[in-house]
Amino acid sequence: MERKDSTSTATSLDDENTENFGSNPTRDILAEGILNLFKPSIDKLDESVQSARDSQQELKVQLESLLKQLQEIEASQDQMPEFSGKVKELINIKHKVSVITNVLQTTQERLINLHQLIEKEEAKRRNLLDIIMETPSINHLTPQDYQNIYEPAEDSFLLLDALEKDLDYIQKKLSPKVCLEIGSGSGIIITSIAKYVKGCLCLSTDINNVACSVTKRTASANPPAKVDSVQMNLVDGIRDKSVDLLLFNPPYVVTSDEELETSKMVEGDGVTSKNLVYTWAGGEMVEES
C-alpha cells in the first residue's frame, strides 16, 4: 500500500473528549474560525464597556457634587421650593447611575470570563497541534531511487502513527539526546523524529549506501530536520549504551536461504537487485538480515 503524502492523525491524549476534538479537522477549522471571528468584536465591546463605566463613574461624582451644592443652597434659603424638586430628580438620577454602573461591572466580569475561556481553548488547540506529526515529504525521490531503496509502504506509516501516539512521552519524558534508526531506507522515520524532537542528535545506518544518501536528502527536504546517515551493518560501528532512542523497521518477509541467494543472482554486478533484497528478506526465522 502506497502512502506518500499522508498526514498521521493519531494522538496520545488521555482525555477522550480532547482526542475527539482533535480528530475532526472540519470541526476544528470551524471552531477556530468562530473564535477568531468573535474575538475582535469582544475586545472592542470590552473597551467600550470600560469606557462607559469610566464615564458613568465620572458622571456619578459630578452629580454627587452638584447635589451637595444644591442642598447647601437650599439650606441657606428659607423658601426655595424649586430646588427641592431638582434635588429629588438628582437623587433619582444618582440611583439610576448606580444601577447602570452595577450592570456594566457585571458585563465586564462576564467579558473577562469569556476572554479566559477563549485563551484556554486556543491553548488547547496549540497543544493538539504540537503533538501532530506530519508525514515527511518524499516528493524529491525518483523512480531510480526506488530501484535501490524500500519505498515507504503501510508498515512505514504504521510506525509513524505509533511514534505520533508516543510523541508527547518522547518529547517531555524521554527527552533523547541521541536517536538512531537502523535501516533508514527512504529516511521518513528518522526525519520525523529529527523534525519534532528538539535538541536530539539524529543518526541512521543502512547497509545500502544509496539509502544513506537518500535519507540525507529526505532530511534536507523537510526542514528543520537534520540527519547524519552512515553505511554499516546494523549497529556494528556504534558504541554500546550511547543511544537513547533506537528505531528499527526490520525486514519481515520469511525467506529461505536458497530463495535469498537466488534473489541475489542477477546479471552483471547485481547491485540494484541486492539492495532491494536486503529491504524485505527476513530470513527463515525473520532474524537474519
TrEMBL record:
<dbReference type="InterPro" id="IPR029063">
    <property type="entry name" value="SAM-dependent_MTases_sf"/>
</dbReference>
<dbReference type="GO" id="GO:0003676">
    <property type="term" value="F:nucleic acid binding"/>
</dbReference>
<dbReference type="GO" id="GO:0032259">
    <property type="term" value="P:methylation"/>
</dbReference>
<feature type="domain" description="Methyltransferase small">
    <location>
        <begin position="159"/>
        <end position="261"/>
    </location>
</feature>
<dbReference type="GO" id="GO:0008757">
    <property type="term" value="F:S-adenosylmethionine-dependent methyltransferase activity"/>
</dbReference>
<dbReference type="Pfam" id="PF05175">
    <property type="entry name" value="MTS"/>
</dbReference>
<feature type="coiled-coil region">
    <location>
        <begin position="42"/>
        <end position="76"/>
    </location>
</feature>
<keyword id="KW-0175">Coiled coil</keyword>
<comment type="similarity">
    <text>Belongs to the eukaryotic/archaeal PrmC-related family.</text>
</comment>
<dbReference type="Pfam" id="PF14712">
    <property type="entry name" value="Snapin_Pallidin"/>
</dbReference>
<dbReference type="InterPro" id="IPR007848">
    <property type="entry name" value="Small_mtfrase_dom"/>
</dbReference>
<protein>
    <recommendedName>
        <fullName>Methyltransferase small domain-containing protein</fullName>
    </recommendedName>
</protein>
<keyword id="KW-0949">S-adenosyl-L-methionine</keyword>
<feature type="region of interest" description="Disordered">
    <location>
        <begin position="1"/>
        <end position="26"/>
    </location>
</feature>
<dbReference type="GO" id="GO:0035657">
    <property type="term" value="C:eRF1 methyltransferase complex"/>
</dbReference>
<dbReference type="GO" id="GO:0008276">
    <property type="term" value="F:protein methyltransferase activity"/>
</dbReference>
<dbReference type="InterPro" id="IPR002052">
    <property type="entry name" value="DNA_methylase_N6_adenine_CS"/>
</dbReference>
<dbReference type="InterPro" id="IPR052190">
    <property type="entry name" value="Euk-Arch_PrmC-MTase"/>
</dbReference>
<dbReference type="InterPro" id="IPR028119">
    <property type="entry name" value="Snapin/Pallidin/Snn1"/>
</dbReference>
<keyword id="KW-0489">Methyltransferase</keyword>
<keyword id="KW-0808">Transferase</keyword>
